[in-house]
Amino acid sequence: MTLPPVKTGERLRLRLKLCSFAAMGPGKADLLDALEDTGSISAAARRTGLSYRKAWMLIDELNRAFRDPLVSTAFGGAGGGGARLTPTGATVLAAYRRLEQAAVQAGADEIALIQSLVAEEPAPAAVAPPSGDESA
Length: 136
Description:
Layout: E1 16-17, E2 23-24, H1 26-38, H2 41-48, H3 52-65, E3 71-74, E4 82-85, H4 87-116
């Protein structure tokens, strides 16, 4: 059982660079959560608003990034196929959700301060700079 996703009103999104080709953020964590709930890549893709191909590619990326795969799959047939989180996948997802919670708690004062300085209505767009070779 993992922690639920952090509900921050999109104020904080944690993205971890895992290696040269992969990162883990809220989208992939939500995909893993959905896969854990549904036992199906296609159902998890539908739940998270992804195409099956995109979900498969994200899962493959995560599986290649870790020493052990996060997701195991079984091909369809008489008993049907399916997918599930491996023990490593469950560990990574739970750790990511704990890290999200810790980041929100640690940054709560700073998030509130920054949010208090955001304009309620956007300022008018700036006029385009004059053409020429003038540097600021």
